[in-house]
Amino acid sequence: MKTTQIKLLCKASVLALSISFAAPVFAQNSNEVVAVVDNNVILKSDLAQSVAEIQRRFQAQKQELPPQQILEQQALEQLIIRQAQLEQVARFNVKPDEKALNDAVLSVASQSGIKSLAAFQQKLDAQQPGTYAAVRSRIAEDLAINRLRQQVVMSRIKISDKDVANFLRTPQGQAALGNQVHVLHIRVSGSGDIQTTAQQIRKEFSNNNDVKALAKEFSSNDVKVDGADMGFRSLSNIPAELAARVSPLDVGQTTDLITVPDGIHILKLIDRKSSEQKAIVPQYQTRHILIQPSEVVSPENAKQTIDSIYKRLKAGEDFAVLASTFSNDTGSARDGGSLGWVTPGVMVPEFEAKMKSTAKGQISEPFQSQFGWHILEVTDTRQQDMTSQYQERMARQILGERQFDTELDSWLREVRNNAFVEIKDPSLDRKNNGK
């Protein structure tokens, strides 16, 4: 039971941002190596910090701590799995973008009431030089692991057309995709004991719909409670993680505690009603010509070529003939540059913006995207009922959410089993101790 609790605590969030800022642990020259994982090592100080983090989580949730040996074994196992994932991150060169990293660091800073990265760096480095860099590096690793997990796990999830059809026939599918819901929403965040606070709020929430009063009652210096009446809205306008929890509820019921990186969420279903709204979207019948820079075509030559083609089009030459002759998009070039009916959200932003702003029957001026230089023509427009396709897409998303944890566990076991691991201290090896 204790082992399971530790696993759940360590798995609660990929972004394990409960880093000890006041007393960070740094490797010393005399630091012992407790385990080797592929090309890296785990130090005694790493293990001590991991154990301390798990202890803080147990204490925050007012749970009894397991024996020290089990605690250390499980903490080491989590470090091994983390390091094995970091080996995969390096192998596939997965990196968070700078904005996402800055936002994540700033989110951690805000938990201490700090509003800027500069102030956060100054505070941490005043305690011990290099602390800010260590924290930022840890968060960058967490973001990279999260991105890798999303990429790998989503590629493993397989949802058939039959799965989608069966789901859409269930009450949950009908509720999720065909109804609107009136939902009350409470989020609990902060550095205090948010788990206990959230449990107390959920109990009160069953008989009290005044979210503002609940937020005021349970907020404190280290726990922030936000409450909102979301009114009637489609489940598609609620984050997928939350929508999937609301759809099976009966009127008057509340969700279980939903733990995500930004806190703990609780939702209550007040009412639901059938939605007759159709997903009517504009579509553009579009064709284009693409000229891409390459090893033999410089960016300057690509621009000169597209400009030359544009002049020929304006002089009256046939678009389809020029597309078939010059376009580097071989798939559409065979059909005179035709892309068929294009729905917004499919093309890259530069292409979509130009497509929407080009009148029917007109040829756009040359424009650039990540793929090269384009010219496009919108030959027709229409309003298309995409309700069926939209519902199928939502069903796949919900089914994918349901499968994610199972596939993640399977992938983590594979990563762990495929890693070279040497545990130096026999007392920390669960296999040798029958754990």
UniProtKB/TrEMBL annotation:
<dbReference type="GO" id="GO:0042277">
    <property type="term" value="F:peptide binding"/>
</dbReference>
<dbReference type="InterPro" id="IPR050280">
    <property type="entry name" value="OMP_Chaperone_SurA"/>
</dbReference>
<keyword id="KW-0413">Isomerase</keyword>
<dbReference type="InterPro" id="IPR000297">
    <property type="entry name" value="PPIase_PpiC"/>
</dbReference>
<dbReference type="InterPro" id="IPR015391">
    <property type="entry name" value="SurA_N"/>
</dbReference>
<dbReference type="GO" id="GO:0003755">
    <property type="term" value="F:peptidyl-prolyl cis-trans isomerase activity"/>
</dbReference>
<feature type="domain" description="PpiC">
    <location>
        <begin position="281"/>
        <end position="380"/>
    </location>
</feature>
<dbReference type="GO" id="GO:0030288">
    <property type="term" value="C:outer membrane-bounded periplasmic space"/>
</dbReference>
<feature type="domain" description="PpiC">
    <location>
        <begin position="178"/>
        <end position="271"/>
    </location>
</feature>
<dbReference type="GO" id="GO:0050821">
    <property type="term" value="P:protein stabilization"/>
</dbReference>
<protein>
    <recommendedName>
        <fullName>Chaperone SurA</fullName>
        <ecNumber>5.2.1.8</ecNumber>
    </recommendedName>
</protein>
<dbReference type="GO" id="GO:0051082">
    <property type="term" value="F:unfolded protein binding"/>
</dbReference>
<comment type="function">
    <text>Chaperone involved in the correct folding and assembly of outer membrane proteins. Recognizes specific patterns of aromatic residues and the orientation of their side chains, which are found more frequently in integral outer membrane proteins. May act in both early periplasmic and late outer membrane-associated steps of protein maturation.</text>
</comment>
<keyword id="KW-0677">Repeat</keyword>
<dbReference type="Pfam" id="PF00639">
    <property type="entry name" value="Rotamase"/>
</dbReference>
<dbReference type="InterPro" id="IPR027304">
    <property type="entry name" value="Trigger_fact/SurA_dom_sf"/>
</dbReference>
<feature type="signal peptide">
    <location>
        <begin position="1"/>
        <end position="27"/>
    </location>
</feature>
<dbReference type="InterPro" id="IPR023058">
    <property type="entry name" value="PPIase_PpiC_CS"/>
</dbReference>
<dbReference type="GO" id="GO:0006457">
    <property type="term" value="P:protein folding"/>
</dbReference>
<keyword id="KW-0697">Rotamase</keyword>
<keyword id="KW-0732">Signal</keyword>
<dbReference type="InterPro" id="IPR046357">
    <property type="entry name" value="PPIase_dom_sf"/>
</dbReference>
<keyword id="KW-0143">Chaperone</keyword>
<dbReference type="InterPro" id="IPR023034">
    <property type="entry name" value="PPIase_SurA"/>
</dbReference>
<dbReference type="Pfam" id="PF09312">
    <property type="entry name" value="SurA_N"/>
</dbReference>
<keyword id="KW-0574">Periplasm</keyword>
<dbReference type="GO" id="GO:0043165">
    <property type="term" value="P:Gram-negative-bacterium-type cell outer membrane assembly"/>
</dbReference>
